[in-house]
Write the structure tokens for this entry.
Amino acid sequence: MSLFLNQSELIELTERKRKAMQIAWLIANQFPFTIGANGHARVSREYVLARLGGANTHSQRPRPEPNWAAI
């Protein structure tokens, strides 16, 4: 599995085919990215999965139970 989204995944994420429009979408939606040598945006797969909740990451913590005794 690649570290970065491939072009079809980037199109699916941004709903944009042109690289300039993809970059504009990424900026508007505050997704971090870099620009590759080919001018295309490079977006971290790990970041997208964590942000969209599609992966079990270390950033997900179990929710504490309510303090029922306090009621």
Summary: Residues 2 and 45 are 8 Å apart (CA to CA). Residues 19-28 form the longest helix (10 residues).
